[in-house]
Amino acid sequence: MTHYLRAGGLLSAQPPAGPAQPSRYRYDPAYPTRGLGGATVRGGGAKDNRRLEARPDVLTFTSDPVRAETTIMGTVTVRLHARSSLDHTDFFARLCDVSPKGASKNVCDGIIRLDRGGTREMTITLSPTAHCCLRGHRIRLQISSGAHPMYGRNPGTGEPLVTATAMRAVDREILQGAAHASAVVLPVVTPARGRQPSPPGS
């Protein structure tokens, strides 16, 4: 199942039909995007990401409520078309499940490190998962440039992380028009016949 990143922070099964304005943010390694939950030894697991998503350096794209239980099982990938003002840069993607009450719980995530700026097409491979998104819940994709300290922050200079002495802020654009259709690809499992659906909003 493919969901496309659309203008206005939408995640849609319909691909864009024409041009669209990119979504923009600035990442400053001196004030790095924080990690929250996920595969960490301390404080890991599923956490409510709403405070993290309120940061100006985190973009979110959210689907309409799903009409039936949707089981995601396997490796999630994000096909991203993006533009960066610096050569040395990271892109972090996280899949979340949003409840009818608004809680945004992380499901899986992944990161890619690049050494060439400009406009790029990339594939971010998220960690394998097995998750059931219940009827009435929504699917959300976060795009940012790090999850510190789970992943070492990229100083933007090309220096080694452990010895870097300078940091450079970077401007990013996520492209989402028909010519550069960014998307998240979900490995959805078809439910067995005869299974009873969950009540909405469970």
Notable features of this structure?
Jelly Rolls; mainly beta; four-stranded antiparallel β-sheet
Describe, in plain words, how this protein is organized in 3D.
There is one protein chain. The chain has about 200 residues and is mainly β. The protein has a single domain (about 1-190), classed as Jelly Rolls, CATH 2.60.120. Helix content is about 0%, strand content about 40%. The protein contains one helix and 14 strands. The chain has one helix at about 50-55, and strands spanning about 1-5, 10, 25, 60, 70-75, 75-85, 90-100, 105-115, 120-125, 130-135, 140-145, 170-175, 185, 190. The strands form three sheets. Strands 1, 2, 3, 6, 9, 12 and 13 form a seven-stranded antiparallel β-sheet that branches. A hairpin with a 5-residue loop joins strand 7 and strand 8 (about 105-115). The longest helix is centred in the N-terminal third of the chain and has 4 residues, at about 50-55. The protein is globular. The two termini are about 25 Å apart.
